[in-house]
């Protein structure tokens, strides 16, 4: 039996400089993202689209969602398999292609996780579990392009 999980976020545009969207250049792309009982996120658009480079943009958050979802599944599977992970970091990269009409879409994401484990005998299994994590990650399963993994596994 499947279960449903529901999520709620409140997005509030804060970029009205007094004249609303009267002109493309007359408003800021600033906004806040509020999720109950969590830290407020200050957002904007990417600087390429007149955004504030000091704020998170949807593309950054999308890439981060893919990376963190993968990591959480990976750590889960390592724990089930008896692999002790002592450090995990990911230098995720993504490519978004803008089309002639101004729309766009992500065409690729590559995760570059570097994982530190305790036992050398578990290196191959630790590498294999990235594939399983990719098959289970809710976010990766929801996108229409492949999410690649190029893992590095080191010994503590």
Largest sheet: 3 strands, antiparallel
In helices, the fraction of residues equals: 10-25%
Number of strands: 9
Order of SSEs: EEEHEEEEHEE
Number of helices: 2
Strands of the widest sheet, in order across it, are: 1-2-3
**Beta-strand content:** 25-35%
Distance, first to last CA: 41 Å
Radius of gyration: 19 Å
Structure classification: alpha/beta
The rough form would be described as elongated
How confident overall, as mean pLDDT? Answer: 95
Q: Indicate the low-confidence ranges by residue numbers.
A: none
Structure description:
The strands form three sheets. This protein has a three-stranded antiparallel β-sheet with strand order 1-2-3, with no helix packed on it. A three-stranded mixed β-sheet has the order 4-7-9, covered by helices on one side. The protein has a three-stranded mixed β-sheet with strand order 5-6-8. The chain is 24% helix and 28% strand. The longest helix is centred in the middle third of the chain and has 24 residues, at 58-81. The mean pLDDT is 95. The chain is of the alpha/beta class. Helix 1 (58-81) packs across helix 2. The chain is built from two helices and nine strands. The protein has helices spanning 58-81, 123-136, and strands at 10-13, 31-34, 41-43, 85-90, 93-98, 104-111, 113-117, 147-149, 152-155. The radius of gyration is 19 Å and the shape is elongated. The N and C termini lie far apart (41 Å).
């Amino acid at each position: 039996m499947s279960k449903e999980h529901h999520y709620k976020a409140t997005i509030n545009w804060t970029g009205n400089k007094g004249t609303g969207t009267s002109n493309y250049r007359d408003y800021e792309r600033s906004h806040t993202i509020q999720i109950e009982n969590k830290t407020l996120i200050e957002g904007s658009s990417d600087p390429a689209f007149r955004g504030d480079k000091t704020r998170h943009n949807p593309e950054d958050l999308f890439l981060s969602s893919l990376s963190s979802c993968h990591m959480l599944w990976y750590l889960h599977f390592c724990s089930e398999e008896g692999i002790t992970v002592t450090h995990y970091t990911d230098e995720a990269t993504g490519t978004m292609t803008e089309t002639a009409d101004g729309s766009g879409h992500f065409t690729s994401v590559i995760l570059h996780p570097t994982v530190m484990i305790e036992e050398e005998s578990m290196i191959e299994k630790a590498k294999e579990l990235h594939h399983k994590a990719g098959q289970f990650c809710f976010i990766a399963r929801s996108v229409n392009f492949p999410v690649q993994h190029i893992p590095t596994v080191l010994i503590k």
